[in-house]
Amino acid sequence: MMNGRESIGTVDAASMARATPRPLRLWPVVRAVLFGCMAGVLAFAIGFGWFANHVSRLVTPANPQKADAIIVLTGGQSRLDAGMNLLAMGKGERLLISGVHPSASRRQLQKATGGDRRLFSCCVDIDRAALDTIGNAEESAKWVETHAYGSVILVTNNYHMPRTLLEMGRLLRHAKLEPYPVVNSNLDNGEWLTKPEALRVLFTEYNKYLVALARGVLPLKPTADGVAIAGMQTDLH
How, if at all, do strands 151-157 and 176-182 pair? Predict the structure, then answer.
């Protein structure tokens, strides 16, 4: 028969055994978490590789088909020049420059593009309301609907084109979108891997593209990416 001291010792030992977590029970959870993290990192890396390879293979069409209108998203001089050249070639009836800084006048913009003054006066519209790619899509959709355009040439940089088509496609469902990627640097054959600046731009844009994809599923709050004439994004050189 146990005395009181032995009984207390037995109870304390049993309590400590119950209170002490068993590592073997936690390991499956830890392993599942680690596996999930590794799978997520791998999927992210594979997705980035696909995105960078896709963007690097985009080329500027030599002779794009004529459309009803042209939309240029501000973010670099080369985009504006490309849009004005398309307008001068008769590839669209009118041109919308979306995302112009409020302080930029039509005269300043016309001088910046170097386009024909008469052509600029008659056939160029300016959107100063858009602050980011989402805003570009919203303002462009209003413009396209107002003019009842059925086809649009979209002008932006190659690295920005996937996200532009995604955002524009959500709102311009009844208009045919013709991408016109502007290429400032040859990144084909994996050359983006050897150019730190190109790698940085592609990585940043890939993350924005993933957020844009997620917006189609989750009600995420959009964030501005600073698309404006007075604070243009740096072209990929």
Answer: parallel
Same domain for 193 and 171? yes
Same domain, 26 and 101: no
User: Which structural domain range is residue 40 located in?
Assistant: 4-56
Residues 90, 178, single domain; the answer is yes
Measured distance CA(57)–CA(227) in Å, rounded:
24
pTM, full prediction: 0.78
The full 3-state SS of the chain, as one line of letters, equals: CCCHHHHHHHHHHHHHHHHCCCHHHHHHHHHHHHHHHHHHHHHHHHHHHHHHHHHHCCCCCCCCCCCCEEEEECCCHHHHHHHHHHHHCCCCCEEEEECCCCCCCHHHHHHHHCCCHHHHHHHEEEECCCCCHHHHHHHHHHHHHHHCCCEEEEEEEHHHHHHHHHHHHHHCCCCEEEEEEECCCCCCCCHHHHCHHHHHHHHHHHHHHHHHHHHCCCCCCCCCCCCCHHHCCCCCC
Mapping DSSP onto H, E and C, the string for 213-235 reads HHHCCCCCCCCCCCCCHHHCCCC
Are 80 and 144 contained in the same domain?
yes
- Mean pLDDT per 10-residue segment, the chain (237 residues): 50 52 69 83 91 91 94 91 94 95 89 83 94 95 96 96 94 93 80 82 94 77 41 40
pLDDT at site 115: 72
Task: Indicate whether 32 and 73 sit together in one domain.
Answer: no
CA–CA dist 174, 176 (Å, integer): 7
